[in-house]
Every structure is written in structure tokens, then in C-alpha cells.
Specification:
Layout lengths: L3 E2 L2 H21 L5 E7 L3 H17 L2 E7 L5 H13 L5 E4 L9 H7 L11 H9 L7 H12 L8 E5 L6 H8 L7 E5 L6 H6 L3 E4 L17 E4 L3 E4 L5 E4 L6 H4 L2 E3 L5 H18 L1
Parallel strand pairs: 1-11, 2-3, 2-4, 5-6, 5-7, 7-8, 8-11
Antiparallel strand pairs: 9-10
The chain binds 5,10-Methenyltetrahydrofolate (GUE).
Length: 285
Amino acid sequence: MTAKVLDGKATAATIKDELRTRVKALAERGITPGLGTVLVGADPGSQAYVDGKHRDCAEVGIASIRRELPADATQEQVDAVVAELNADPACHGYIVQLPLPAHLDTQRVLESIDPDKDADGLHPVNLGRLVLGYDGPLPCTPRGVVELLRRYDVPLRGANVAVVGRGNTVGRPLGLLLTRRSENATVTLCHTGTLDLAAHTRAADVVVVAAGVPGLLTSDMINPDAVVVDVGITRVIGSDGKGRYTGDVDPEVAQTAAAVVPMPGGVGPMTRAMLLTNVVERAER
Ligand SMILES: Nc1nc(=O)c2c([nH]1)NC[C@@H]1CN(c3ccc(C(=O)N[C@@H](CCC(=O)O)C(=O)O)cc3)C=[N+]21
């Protein structure tokens, strides 16, 4: 049986339509939501991601505030840009594109972002708010996963969810989101060091893989009713010598699972839609 495909690209397009309406309502109150991006250096991958975010903004009517610094920018220069965006009332939320060049102190930069302007939802204050169940901007990729499952009516209440990967941007905050009272899933947070990983994934109704290990989840590791979400994105060089991106889920799983969230076309577009959502929500307050 071929798995049903949960289409992140189409769902993100629907969310953008909804945001356009909310942005119009804000305009009637004289408010234009603004998203800032800070890009340090000229990594082609990072540049492409940032370009994509500004294209998304244009589509829904969010103003773009773009700050670019050279690869050899000093810590003081980066700090100054962060301070400027913290103080700019036209900027409702912003992100500092990661990774930063190695000579910069990433933790210091991220901690100096005003938590109420943290469009990524990854500031320590916001991760703390998530732990405590307080309101705050939510991390985009975990929120995108939950939103996609919700819109496809995948039951989470009481469901067993295996999350493979405990990173700070996806796996760990996703465990926190799914175990909130509003979602009420039962989460097993696994990682590549988990003993008998397959025993945990086989027992799960939903398996989310965010380990950054291509092909980690194979079809013998899931039950046939499972919904599988591929969050992995790893650049590999194909046999033709060309670079491409691959997920953490073996392609065979698309034949054996009940439903899959593919990569590409799944969590990536949802992440971008949640970034826009965070900015519109900030502007609405
Ligand atoms: N401060 C910060 N925030 C981020 O959110 C952040 C970051 N730094 N650094 C890099 C990662 C990576 N990331 C992606 C987002 C969307 C796709 C995406 O939409 N991918 C497409 C395929 C590629 C494309 O078409 O562009 C897809 O999955 O269909 C991919 C990767 C956000 N990141």
C-alpha cells in the first residue's frame, strides 16, 4: 500500500492565504507587520533560505527588514544590529540566520534578541515559557509539524509519538509541544544512541524523525498504521556528482506507512509559514 502524503507545501499555501486576511485587518488599524532577518556572511545555502523568507513576506504583505553583514563582521557589529532591531518599532519579529561564522558567540547573539521579537521561538526565555506553559512565540519547525498533523486530522490526543532526535530546534521543543495539555500526546524522546530504537518507533502511532541521519528510519521500524514525519535535511553528493538534500526517512517507508510527510514539500514550507504566523501574531498584540 502506498502511504497517503501529508502535503506541507499545499498546507503552507493555505496558511499564507489566511495570513493575508489577517494582514489586511491589521492594515485597517494602520499596522504593517515587519519581519527582520540578520545574515552574516555569504553562505549560498543561508542566502537562499533568507531570500525565501523575504519572498514569503512579500506574498502575504509583511514588510521585510533585511540586515546583512560581511563574513568577518565583529561581535560588536552583530550586537549593534540586534540592538537596532530590538529598538525598531516597525520590526515585530526577526531571526538571526544560523549558523553564524565560528568566530562569533552564537549563544550571546541569540540571548540578546528581545524574547518578544523572537520570530524563531528559540530564545531561552521562550523555551522556558514553553516548558512552563506560558504564552510566547513557539519554535517554528515543531509548531509546523503539529499544525500539519492537526490540519490532516491525525489524532494526537493519547497517541504514542516517537520523536527521534533531541536537538534544541526540533526534537526537544517538539516533545514539549506535543505533551502540552492541548495536544496530550504521549512522547518518547529518542536519539541515535537509543538502545533498540526500532522497538520505540514500532510502538508509535506517529514517528517524527529529526536526527540528521539520512535513511535512519527504515520500513521494518514502523507499524503499518504509522504516520511518519521526515524533518531531516542533509546535503549529500549524488552519484552524478551533484549536491542535493535528503531526509532521514528511507524512501521505502512511503510504500509501507499509512501516511508520510515528505521531504521536500513537508516540514520545510510549514516552518516558513509558522515564521510568518509568529510575526503576524506579534503584530496583532
Ligand atoms: N535562525 C534560523 N531559523 C531557521 O528557521 C533556520 C536557520 N536559522 N538556519 C537554517 C535552517 C534550515 N531551515 C529551512 C527552512 C525551510 C526549508 C524548506 O522550505 N525546504 C524545502 C526545500 C528547499 C527549497 O525549496 O528551498 C522543502 O522542504 O520543501 C528548508 C530549511 C530553516 N532554518
